[in-house]
From TrEMBL:
<feature type="domain" description="Gfo/Idh/MocA-like oxidoreductase N-terminal">
    <location>
        <begin position="14"/>
        <end position="134"/>
    </location>
</feature>
<dbReference type="InterPro" id="IPR051317">
    <property type="entry name" value="Gfo/Idh/MocA_oxidoreduct"/>
</dbReference>
<keyword id="KW-0520">NAD</keyword>
<protein>
    <submittedName>
        <fullName>Gfo/Idh/MocA family oxidoreductase</fullName>
    </submittedName>
</protein>
<feature type="domain" description="GFO/IDH/MocA-like oxidoreductase">
    <location>
        <begin position="142"/>
        <end position="297"/>
    </location>
</feature>
<dbReference type="InterPro" id="IPR055170">
    <property type="entry name" value="GFO_IDH_MocA-like_dom"/>
</dbReference>
<dbReference type="GO" id="GO:0000166">
    <property type="term" value="F:nucleotide binding"/>
</dbReference>
<dbReference type="Pfam" id="PF22725">
    <property type="entry name" value="GFO_IDH_MocA_C3"/>
</dbReference>
<dbReference type="InterPro" id="IPR036291">
    <property type="entry name" value="NAD(P)-bd_dom_sf"/>
</dbReference>
<dbReference type="InterPro" id="IPR000683">
    <property type="entry name" value="Gfo/Idh/MocA-like_OxRdtase_N"/>
</dbReference>
<dbReference type="Pfam" id="PF01408">
    <property type="entry name" value="GFO_IDH_MocA"/>
</dbReference>
Amino acid sequence: MTIHPTRVSVEAPLRIGVIGVGQRATIALHVRAAATDATLVAAADTTDDGRRRAAQLFGSDVAVYASHADLIAHGKIDAAIVTTPDWTHAAIAIDLLRAGIAVYLEKPMAISLEDSDSILTAAYETRTPLYVGHNFRHSAVVRLMREIIERGEIGRVKAVWCRHFVGNGGDYYFKDWHADRRRVNSLLLQKASHDIDVIHLLGGGYTRRVVGMGALMVYGDIADRRDRTGETMSDWFSFGNWPPASQTGLNPVVDVEDVSMMMMTLDNGVLASYEQCHFTPDYWRNYTVIGTEGRLENLGDTGGGVVKVWNTRGEWREAGDREYPITGVESGHADADFLTMSEFLAHVATGRRTALSPVAARQAVAAGALATSSLRAGSTPFDVPQLDPKITAYFESQTDAASR
């Protein structure tokens, strides 16, 4: 099969546009610090508030447009960073790709498997660069766990478990469009897509069969609702919003689950599970990876935490047999965001292979979306449909062979 290369026909500096100037748009600020010669020249947002934020965030020399269509027509850009709400991703990304504009698409790439496949098809047919911002792959804790696995310290991986304590869930996901399944599908897709992708990476395979379970257990009982049009999360976030039932000003529609879980069989036989809860007091994720010769587990998922390895038999030993410190930022993911943006820009400018294939992003959507269908259908198991082999081969040809 002949694989045609991604189309790269740009001159330095790369001209970058930002579409959607909400909370996540700050990732575009990393463009200026990256090694690739690139500059922000344009932004687009459909709201007056978003356009005002664009001028404040990116400077008065950045052209601001009222829609992505206007930016495509007048922006004269080589690449676009799409940080709009999830349900808009597919239409915007496809328009950009069809216009020959390289796309950085914030995760999840779409809220349905069908839309994800449509995006991949557009990128494949136009040979326009597509990159999905699964920045957690570049986090220090994930890189460390993968290094331990690749060194063979726990043998062959057989099971991966992830528990996600989303302590900020009430503020992050239940006061705006994230709480509305029409806009997000589910938080098992939206929030979990990072972790599903990492489970695939650490497990060395993609989900083949999935079953889900979940419920709206706390936030659905809160009657205090409010339309927050024009606001972003920083306008209402506070650690003082506790306990969870005391939250106020939730989105007018709240119909996504605040507790959800899924079990996965990967295509290489590895078994995996993922659980998330949006009303825990603490906010972090815990991975356990079990192999034929031991297991690893992270305690903390940012700088200051550790990954421990157990290789000898015995009762509970808190210290484990080996302990590795997690480096990087002690809160948030600015370091991973910088590495992610740097990888995208280098890919567009030089065709450099990436650590993440858009196929992997599609597989995260597939697992999360089908787990959601499962939990809403009484935990009926679903099999993940295969992607067109030509599209798979095309994207994998541009990805680091060591990556999944």
